[in-house]
Amino acid sequence: MPFKRLLGDLLQNIPGAQGAIIADWEGEAVDQVARIDEYQLKVTGAHKGVILTNLREVVKRLGGDEPQEIVITTKKLQTLILPITHDYFLVLTLQRGGALGRAMFEARRCVGLLRKEIA
């Protein structure tokens, strides 16, 4: 499976991108590419998995649909969380002020390619 290649292409296509990780429903890293500390990216991926799981539960209780994407903006970073399947998700981190629109476009494209690989 070309996960690493797809993640590498994702980072290369987004100015300010810091790291991309595919994790499973438990927050365990499946594959990653990083311009930052790899351990920190794994921790970020696991933490964002908790956020995704909690949001899914809240939305389900309220009768809503499955979340398609989550954007978290902090003082220094922007983080995108996109479910690939119910069991896998993509986390992309980029510098604040980076190309968020471009990041969303490229992340959506990457998720589409990842779904084909996982299926």
Describe this structure in words.
It is a single chain. The protein is an alpha+beta fold and 119 residues long. It has one domain (3-118): 2-Layer Sandwich (Beta-Lactamase). 45% of the residues lie in helices and 28% in strands. Strands 2-1-5-4-3 form a five-stranded antiparallel β-sheet, with helices on both faces. Helix 1 (3-12) runs antiparallel to helix 3. The longest helix has 24 residues, at 38-61. It starts with a helix and ends with a helix.
Quickly list its features:
Beta-Lactamase; alpha+beta; single chain; 119 residues; five-stranded antiparallel sheet
The total count of helices amounts to 3
Helical/strand content category: alpha+beta
Helix-strand string: HEEHEEEH
State the CATH class: Alpha Beta
Instruction: State the total count of DSSP E strands.
Output: 5
Proportion in helices: 40-55%
The global form is globular
Number of domains: 1
Low-confidence parts: none
Instruction: Please name the CATH topology.
Output: Beta-Lactamase
Strands ordered across the widest β-sheet: 2-1-5-4-3
Radius of gyration computed on alpha carbons: 13 Å
Give the end-to-end Cα distance, rounded to a whole number of Å.
11 Å
Question: Considering the protein shown, what is the CATH homologous superfamily?
Answer: Dynein light chain 2a, cytoplasmic
Quote the beta fraction: 25-35%
Major sheet: size, sense and barrel closure? 5 strands, antiparallel
Q: What does the average pLDDT come to?
A: 95
Please, what is the oligomeric state? single chain
